[in-house]
Amino acid sequence: MSSGQERVLKRRIHSIESTEQLTRAMDLISASQIVRAQARFEASRPYVDGIAKVLAVTASDLGPSAPFRGAPADPRRVLVVTIVADRGLCGAYNSNVLRCAESLMRAGEAAGRAYTVVAVGRRAQRFFRFHGRAIAKSFTKMTERPTYADAAAVAAEIVVPFLTGQVDLVQLVSTRFSSAGVQVVEVRQLLPLAVEDPLPGVPAVPPPPAAEGFYDFEPPAEEILASVVPLYAEAALYSALLEASTSEHTARQRAMSAATENADELATTLRRLMNRIRQDAITNEIMEIVGGAEALRLAGRGDGSLTLTASSGQD
User: Cα separations (Å) of 79 from 28, 146, 160?
Assistant: First the structure.
């Protein structure tokens, strides 16, 4: 290999090593953020559980015909909330959620439903614009460390259309965090209150047994339910944002760990290739030197025989 090709290999190895340093740093950062995000998600559960219990008890007093409860028989206007990351470098985390949302809307449109999109995360904004879908509202810079104020801002965009009858159903497409090794993309009913699963990740709360007493509502249960629905939406979205944030950091840590390993393997392979080619070049140089020395030795032996012949001729 020529010296120019060797320089190309050296530049590639240097570039890969620089990339490896970045991916290793991102791996460590994501690993540290996973613990914090999971702790915040777990800390939010008592409030979310409390809202779920209030809704379950209030709705149970009104019976099966309670407003804002159950699944619409034939929803025609559906609002879809998607939660993804603002950045990439997290494997298939973003694409899995967005493809699921796109498949959901295509299947619904084939059944005659009309969809409105609320996009949380810059990647969702780009994806839906690329596919030509109108976005009612988009939110960015809130997925890595979401706050309750962020959830309230998103909830404000979905509660008003639902309460005023502009949409029949609100669905949430996001990633549910089960463990460090399992994160699943799910479509969940956000509004009206699902009987089977009132909040993302929170089991349904049955009405209290008669032995535990009864509840007296003031003001009436209908008014309480209407006032609690916005709080429920905020709590549900806050829980989903924290869950998605934990899943995002986990996916990024896994992707950066794999990228670091791949970069290390590639750099090792290129070093071995460069060393082997360099050794081949050194071997060729040694062979040329040995060959030249042998040629000089043979040439010197030939000059001596000619000189002796000339001397004997003069005698």
Answer: 37, 22, 12
